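Thread: "does anyone have the structure for this chain?"

Original post by V.I.:
We have the sequence but no experimental structure in hand. Need at least a predicted one for the grant figures.
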Amino acid sequence: MSRSIKRKETSDGVTVIDEKTGEEATGETYVEALEELTEHLSSLAVLNTLFDDVQERFEETGTTEEDVEEAIEWARSQ
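Reply from O.Q.:
Generated one for you, tokens below.
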């Protein structure tokens, strides 16, 4: 998979922007900015995987948004 990364020189150093996701990161150097962006995108990938797993589980068990809202309300009342 290829990505397009934009590079901007700023007063804070270098900002890189992943054009696919719109995510950006700034570092003192281009390499530092890329490292920061990589860490951020990796975290997003983990969260997306977790979301997909939860969504699949909800679909398997027939859990609805209403069920989730009721569970949250119940938990807050405890």
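V.I.: this helps a lot. The two ends are 47 Å apart (CA to CA).
O.Q.: and The chain has one domain: 5-77.
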